[in-house]
Design goal:
About 25% of the residues lie in helices and about 25% in strands. The protein is α/β, with parallel strands linked by helices.
């Protein structure tokens, strides 16, 4: 993995947002999780053909952008910020621009912030992929040209089933202002509550994307109730490294 010279805070975010904190903080538990979950972690690249026997594939594509390919071949994007000059937030660590996105089955947006919503609107318009996000941000996405029937409106506590991919929406301790056009007033619109997502694949594998959350006791509840196998935590976006290590510990509460 190569890194450009960027300010120190960005380095923390680029280096560590993509780490799977449970694996880093608790390698002994990680071995068992990896074997039972049948999950393949890979550098960025084109999505691979999948079969029901194929392990799930997870790619870190810079910042908080992950692409998850399920055993059944469903492609799920989390916070799809692209390395595209037309983006409000340009994810310079991503190998992908909008032209390179050709098929998507589901998009998850954790907040209205430019780095979280990324180019979700443009990707949905191009591929027809549905978006799961808040009621408030849904209205903003419609203004940006997303078809209203392509948005699944939710809030913490909502549950969705999209083609066999189950999504539990949970709370995230973060803001959610969506940027407006340059020079416009107000400079941001309210995007509703910030979200996290627990995605259950066809095989029962559960992946928790925490959005940009700060440290919260809610993580213990998610571990007890939903028992995710894999956690994606936002170091330097919402958590400092010491807090992220504690967050990983929280996520093992009653979650063997």
């Amino acid at each position: 993995m190569r890194f450009r010279h960027v300010p120190w805070l960005d380095i923390w975010a680029v280096v560590t947002t993509g780490l799977l904190l449970i694996a880093v903080a608790f390698p002994q538990q990680w071995t068992g999780t990896l074997m039972s979950a049948r999950m393949h972690f890979a550098p960025a690249g084109r999505a691979f053909a999948q079969t029901p026997e194929t392990p799930a594939r997870l790619e870190w594509l810079g910042w908080q952008f992950f692409r998850l390919t399920s055993p059944g071949g469903k492609i799920i994007l989390f916070n799809p910020s692209l390395n595209d000059p037309k983006a409000v937030f340009v994810n310079r660590e991503s190998p992908l621009n909008l032209e390179q996105i050709d098929r998507v089955d589901l998009i998850l947006i954790s907040s209205g912030h430019a780095d979280d919503q990324g180019m979700a609107a443009e990707i949905s318009q191009k591929t027809g992929a549905p978006i799961i996000t808040t009621f408030e941000l849904a209205n903003w996405l419609v203004v940006k040209g997303v078809a209203s029937d392509k948005i699944l409106r939710g809030e913490p506590g909502s549950r969705f089933d999209v083609g066999g991919i189950k999504v539990q929406v949970v709370n995230s301790v973060h803001g959610s202002g969506a940027p407006t056009l340059p020079g416009s007033l107000p400079s941001a619109v309210y995007g509703g509550p910030a979200l996290g997502f627990i995605v259950t694949l066809e095989t029962g594998l559960k992946i928790y994307h925490a959005g940009s959350t700060a440290l919260t006791q809610d993580l213990k509840l998610y571990a007890q109730l939903y028992k995710p196998h894999v956690a994606l935590l936002p170091i330097a976006s919402g958590l400092m490294p010491d807090e992220a290590a504690l967050a990983a510990e929280f996520l093992l509460t009653d979650n063997p």
